[in-house]
Amino acid sequence: MKGLFIISGLGILAMLAEIFKFKKILYPLVLVGILAAYAMTFVDWNPPTDHLSRLDELTASFSNMIRFDQVALAFSGVILVTAFFWFILASHYFENETNITDHFALVLFALVGALMLTSFSNMTTLFLGVEILSIPMYVLAASRKKDIASNEAGFKYLIMGSFASGFLLFGIALVYGATGTFDLGGISHYISNSHGDVPAFFYAGVIMMLIALCFKVSAAPFHFWAPDVYEGSPTVITALMSTVVKTAAFAALMRLFNVGFHHIGDVWGQIMAVVIGLSLVISNITAASQQSVKRMLAYSSISHAAFMLMGVLANKNGFDSISSILYYSLAYSVGSIASFTVLYNVSKDNNGHIEAFNGLSKRNPFLAVCMVVALLSLAGIPVTAGFFAKYFIFTTLIGTPYKWLLGVAVVTSAIGAYYYFKVLIAMYFKPAISTEPVKVEMSHTVLLIITTLFTLAIGIVPGYIIGIFK
Amino acid sequence: MLNGISINMYIMLSAVLFIIGAVGVMARRNSIILFMCIELMLNAVNLLLVAFSTLHVDAKGQVFVFFVMAVAAAEVAVGLAILSMIYRNMKTIDIDELSKLKH
Amino acid sequence: MLGYTITQWLFGILSFLAIMFALMVVFTRNPINSVLYLVLTFFCIAGHYLLLNAQFLAVVHIVVYAGAIMVLFLFVIMLMNLNQDTEPQKTVISKVVAAIAGGLLLFVMVGALRGSEQLQIKQYGHSDIGLVKNLGNVLFHDFLFPFEIASVLLLAAMVGAIMIGKKEIK
Fold first, then answer.
1. What ipTM goes with this model?
2. Which of A28, A72, B10, B81 is the most exposed place for a label (fewest CB within 10 A)?
3. Which of A230, A201, A393, A359 is CA-nearest to residue A302?
């Protein structure tokens, strides 16, 4: 809860920086603020003994609109860590832009929305969280004003986002109509008390909400906007979309379906299983034929969305797979940040064609090695974090009726490995276009070292994160 | 029954309005009309919320409508700003013209 | 009159008009006409709010939608001079697909109405939940947190719109 307030305050501070002329120190201030918000998740995590009542008191004082329980805090932690890494990645980007303070404010406001999505316990806060996260992202996607591709990305994102919001709202309205409450606990209570005797439009509402959130996490067949938007946006913003936004949308989906609707898991489970299967097949096959690394990463993010959805699907009979979703989102976010950092340094012209990677091992061996680790992690090759992430998701799925998804996932992952290796081959075995070495900034070097070590470290000792809720 | 009108009628009415809006989003090319169709969808939702709110004799549904209105206003402001920027750059707001990114 | 009460007549007329105007929004060529039809749709919806005893909301609805949002639309259309009738049409296929998708959606919705009669209705008749006093009470007690956090949303939209809208100053 304190973290949410700190980030909101930082956003307003960023706007004041323009007026009171402390733009120069704003960047370090924001980094410190995010770290402070992160520290707050630890303060709230291991509370003094009377904490449970204090948490309840605090939650009650906001009429049970928002609840920072341990699951919420864990996902907030992942989001804040990713955001911290992202700010290091974006340091250069912020220097070049004209409206620096506006950019800071927008990113921080989006972060407020993301934190709300991890912790909502009412449909109102879910809806507002989605919108607070999305509206700054629409603007940021379109923020390269002279670039038509960026304009279009922002516009397309906005149209698809609002369209999805419409579905989300219609779903909320139908669920409210059946249950008479917006409260997540109240809805769950209503379902378990009604013994299947609920009006059919309630299910229609649940399915519409599922469709809307699948739009937001860009799972097939609702993914068609994602590659265009990811490719058109500035690379740094794409990195934000595929990490922070995605993790937040997942935390929301998980909270909604595993807390609110977990009693009717059979109803949405079938649909979600189809969505997962489609996402895996479509994303991996289409990604293999892409020539732009940025677009390829967009398709790969769709397939990762499918894996995280598997976690949600497996979760419907309990809460055992939450930690594996947490692990997956952390491994995926860190791997993505690393690969986008390399992409940003290799391809400054914002299109990220694969030829730009040719011979990277000669031009800058350090970048190439970091990219290898990041891509191996995203592909799920052993020893890296990504392997264990996929492994844990698979183990949670084994006890459920959706075992057939495992087969689909294994086959498509093998196809997936192909396009990751395409980049590796380009880096190590193709002749370079120019022999001029690629320059990397100091901050990016540090970031790459941290993320690479992090990817290897949580791959070697995954137990720390997997056992976090015990 | 709300004043002699069944709740089903309200669900039907707002579903029809919502679907007219959704079809408009899919079938039109003029971006401004696209935005209007999205407004129509949100209004259908508002109507449904108010009907349910009266049915349950619960003011929460009506309060939710306020938030929908606030969000709709924010979305339109941002959307029209992006649209006018696109118009400055391209002199068109035809969405099929905008699809330069398709492969 | 034919066994229907006045409210039922009003409901029927308002619904018919709302659907008609909504269809006109989608099918009119000229954006200006679309805006005006949408305003008329909003007035019909406000009429429905009055029928549902949501008096305050009806007023707010007119002020916000017809008064603010649609005026913004009109401004943009007029500033860009977009009021021409010659909009290039989508291909027939995409129109057919849109119509089919809409029809399917409607079909699903109608199917979903089965069994909605069993909804428990707590109280019949006239109620005053739609009055300002009640709404204010709920808004500032139960919905205090969303109310506060909505300010972040509006702030973000404001900053975003200005950032996109203003000229680059070098």
1. 0.93
2. A28
3. A230
